[in-house]
Amino acid sequence: MPAHLRETVPTRAFRNCTEARARGAAPVRRGDPGYGPHLDRDGDGVGCEPYRGR
User: Fold this and answer.
1) What's the Cα-to-Cα distance from 18 to each of 14, 22, 41, rounded to whole Å?
2) 53: DSSP letter
């Protein structure tokens, strides 16, 4: 885990991707502190991925 995140490890899932990005944690992966299924729109285990328009 990067040093800048060690001191601010969340004890719950981030409320949204804006919060995850503000804390420098995005993208957040399943099993990582702060991950929640509501952050993973496509169900691939990675939340708050950068949007790649189609």
Assistant:
1) 9, 6, 14
2) -
The answer on pLDDT for 18 being more than 70 is: yes
- CA 16, CA 54: separation in Å to the nearest integer? 22
Which residues pair with residue 29 across a beta bridge?
Answer: 46
Q: Which residue has the tokens 């929640």?
A: 36
Q: What is the mean pLDDT of the chain?
A: 86
3-state secondary structure 2-39: CHHHHCCCCCCCCCCHHHHHHCCCCCEECCCCCCCHHH
Cα-Cα end-to-end distance for the chain: 32
Per the CB < 8 A criterion, the answer to whether 35 and 28 are in contact is yes
